Design the sequence.
């Protein structure tokens, strides 16, 4: 079922903003560590970033897509939203794919940390565009 928190504009937006804010803060931390060449600590921060994205942003996306989730219910109530919802699901997929690329890179023997930070930034950019679009299209104000 769609909890009221996901259907209402303000509470749903608050979840988006918490995810985005947490991820942005972590990226700032990773940038500082890369500048100081503190690679061991940076590797931990990358792991923590991936966990955060999976635990907050992707879990939230999964919830929206599940049966009786926000997306399914929105299309059921208004079939005209079908294409829009497909686009929003593609945004979720892109974030899942980038998180997967980060996991592959951090597992390598000599990870490219600049690349990892670039991936992290890409998640944020997609997430921000996605959230504003979703709020506009699906949420009751
Ligand atoms: Fe979403
Ligand atoms: Fe959302």
Sequence:
């Amino acid at each position: 079922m769609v909890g009221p928190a996901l259907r209402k504009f303000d509470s749903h937006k608050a979840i988006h903003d918490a995810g985005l804010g947490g991820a942005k803060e972590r990226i700032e931390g990773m940038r500082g560590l890369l500048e100081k060449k503190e690679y061991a600590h940076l590797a931990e921060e990358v792991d923590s970033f991936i966990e955060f994205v999976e635990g907050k942003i992707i879990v939230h996306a999964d919830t929206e897509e599940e049966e009786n989730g926000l997306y399914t219910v929105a299309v059921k109530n208004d079939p005209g939203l079908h294409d829009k919802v497909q686009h929003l699901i593609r945004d979720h997929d892109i974030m899942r794919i980038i998180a997967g690329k980060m996991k592959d890179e951090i597992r390598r023997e000599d990870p490219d940390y600049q690349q990892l930070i670039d991936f992290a930034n890409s998640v944020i950019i997609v997430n921000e565009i996605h959230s504003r679009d979703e709020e506009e299209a699906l949420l009751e104000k």
